[in-house]
Each structure stands twice: as C-alpha cells, then as structure tokens.
User: What shape does this take?
Amino acid sequence: MIIPALDVLQNQIVRLYQGKYDTAQFYPYELGARLQAYANSGAGKLHLVDLEGARDPSKKQWQHIQTATKALNVPYQVGGGIRSEHDVADWLEAGANQVVIGSMAVEKREQVQAWIEKFGAEHFVIALDVNKTENGWAPATHGWLSESEFGLFELVDFYVALGVIDFLCTDISKDGTMTGPSFALYEDLINHNNQIKVQASGGVSSLDDIAKLKKLGVGGVILGKSLLDGAFNVEEALACYQNA
Assistant: This one.
C-alpha cells in the first residue's frame, strides 16, 4: 500500500531533515486540499503527524487537522501528541482509522497496552524510530533524543502479543534525506516476523525504491518529501507498487 504523508507544524505542511525542527522546510499547500488531492489520486490511506503536538502536547494542532480531515473519504492514521486514553478516543471519534503511538509505546508499554485492550488492536499503529548501533536496531524517543532500554524486536514481540500487526519503522539516519530507504531495517523486521505489516518510512526517493520495498514484503510505503518535491506523483507510485 502507498501511504502519502503530511507533517504539520505551525498549522502548515512541513518536512524535517532527520527529525530536526530547525531544518523545517515549509510548503505552500493548504492541508485539506492536499489531503483531498492525494485521496483523489487513488491513495487508499493517508498519514498525518502533528509535529507541534509531538514536541509539546500543550500546543496540539488537532482542531486544524481535524477540520482538514473532515471531508476525507479514505482512511487515515494520525500521530503526534497522543498521550492519554482521552487523546486516543478523541481521534477515533474524529474519524481517524488508526492512531500512531511512538514514544509512549516505548516508554509506557503498560499504559498503551490498556488503550489497545480498550479500543482494539486494529486501531493502533506502533511507530518505532531506530538508530543502528553495535548491538542492533535501538529505538529512540522524545524527538529521537533518548534511547530506549528495549530492543526493536522485543518491542515488536510485545505488541504482536496484544494483537497489533501494523508497525511504522523509520531509520532516523534516513528520514527526510531522499537518499534511499533503510532496506536492511525492513529486511530484518520481516525476517523476524513475516506476519506483521511493516510501514516503511524515510528516504524513499525513487520508484525503484518503492519496487524494492514491495519485493522485500513491506505492507506499506509512506511517502512524504518525495511527493511534495515532485520526485513522482501518487498515481506513479501506486502503479509501481502494484506492478512490482
């Protein structure tokens, strides 16, 4: 599946380089119109991130994002600033198909487990952002500033046991770089458990990248900067993924 993505900062569409806020590149597109354009192009799912809320939950842009998603007729997943059961309920009631849980899924597993048991595993995407270290893939939290005490596969196994199958994994060194995705990361994840649906994110810069990811067996390819910068369009990405 091809999943166009839009990050929102200061109520504007933006892309960061390796998650660093001081690298923000703003785009002159209206959020609702851009989402609808992606949907009209055939995308079966969309991905949204509230970067303001991720950095400071007291500055959530949810009203702006929810206004933009109100007219959407395709499923969407959303993350950024989701810190409580009320936050999860708020997004699901607003029409989100799934909520994306990142740092909380690493640091407060029991709390996230309670949400999963209440709302259903199908409504959750677990986002694990990693750095490659001597000891393997190490999840990072808090805007990628802190390293987790748990390994990547340990966290995957924990959530799989709760019924979660959707995992969004990003190699931090690749995010926003347009230098090609981390094929090794996705190969390792799929070799570890080929029943999960891995969403590949970060670095995708060409249709060739999409074809390689599909052949590896990923469940979805998240496209942000490549679509915004016109490396290819949604229709081309969909055709490539379907034919790979």
